[in-house]
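Troubleshooting log. The previous structure file for this entry was overwritten by mistake, so regenerating from the original sequence record. Sequence copied from the archived sheet and checked twice against the printout by T.R.
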Amino acid sequence: MGAGIGNFYNIGDIKFRGKALPDSHHERISTVTLDMSIDQITELTITFDDPYFELLQSGVYEMETPVTYRGLNLLVAVIETNSGGGAGGFGVRCRPKMVYKLKKLKGKKVRKNISPTTFLLSECKAAGIVKANVVAQNTNKKKQIARDTKQKGTSYDPTSAPSAWTTMQRLATEKGFLLYEVGNTLFFGKPTWLVGRSKKVQVVWDGNDQAPLSFPEFRKSLDSEDVELNIKLPVERASELRPGIGLTLSNYPKFSGTYLIRTIQYPLVGPGEITVTASTVRNPEPQRSGDTSSDDSKPARSERRRFPASSSSQAPSRSNPNRVKNPTRTGSSKSQVDFGNTRFDFDPALDGFGNMFD
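Regenerated output below.
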């Protein structure tokens, strides 16, 4: 498992409903923000300078509109207006189609003698996730697993409405796992397992092409069990990186070791640097919820699976509460970029980013 997005971009690669944007729309694009982490689902934001909202009224930018950008399959989830260059502007925020589908999958479902991993895979299949990859750790069978459903007398906001997605989040919490989506791939497993099966990014403090661009910033506190790391790397190394893999720092006093990459931010076009936040590779303590099932039996087989295509749906939230103890983040969680000539390193055979899997 390895990599993410290279520092090269082609303006025609962003498509709405399978079509590239007209030149008149390209000229109005001001910035792009790509946010990828293990604590939140992917979000791609495009902002436009749009005097008198001419583009906004064109019908191109509507809720749930399919958006593709190389390996990312997204939907328009939020439309926001702003002042733009002074006479008006707007932004569209696009989020992963696979998570929306899982959030739209609701209703009663109970399975007996099944492992959380197998239950997760069955929910993905039921959602008809397009060309999904699921990377999931083995788990023992439980007597019973039930999908989350609404309880009488309880009100829910859109971010917490019971669904297949909230059920997966609960199962991850109960096992001390992470659950996150990166590059159209769903990951479900303990941090130690996820880092152990991926190719690690090597950073050498005094090591020429593997050296960071500045002093690594560490934080250790009585308030947290985790060491937190903020480090900047050359943008040329962007294709090596994605959230959820390990970063090994060598030859640095006291803090040398392997850390879990939590977020990456860098420009998709032109010169710049990659800002990486990482933390101690530590498994969260399993947290018991109201599920009455118990672990017994044999572990279910875990592997990457693919499922057939289906229609898309939307859900509103991108937050993921199933996280390791949240480190204090240094710097912005998003990278704001101008358009130019960049390209994702995407391998269609992997349904994700090139060299993501062993």
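The chain has five helices and 22 strands. Archived copy saved in two places this time.
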